[in-house]
Write a structure and sequence with these properties.
single chain; alpha+beta; two-stranded parallel sheet
């Protein structure tokens, strides 16, 4: 996970990158960028049509293997 520009609190517990909350996910731009930068996301949307658009847009990133998938 890319943690460029982020630091931990110094307590020694380790560091995990941000979790992005998008309460109006729309077409999925925020989720797309979150995934591209190694973050997790939660998206909320009331409009079913936008849900389908966002899912279509981010699905390739969700199924794409990353370098860390190959490290044991």
């Amino acid at each position: 996970t890319d943690t460029t520009g982020w630091t931990d609190c110094g307590c020694g517990a380790g560091f995990d990158s941000a979790l992005v909350l998008d309460p109006f996910i729309g077409s999925g731009t925020t989720a797309y960028v979150a995934l591209k930068t190694g973050r997790k996301f939660i998206g909320i949307e009331l409009n079913y049509e936008y849900c389908k658009i966002a899912e279509k847009r981010i699905k390739p990133l969700l199924s794409q293997k990353t370098l860390t998938d190959f490290i044991k």
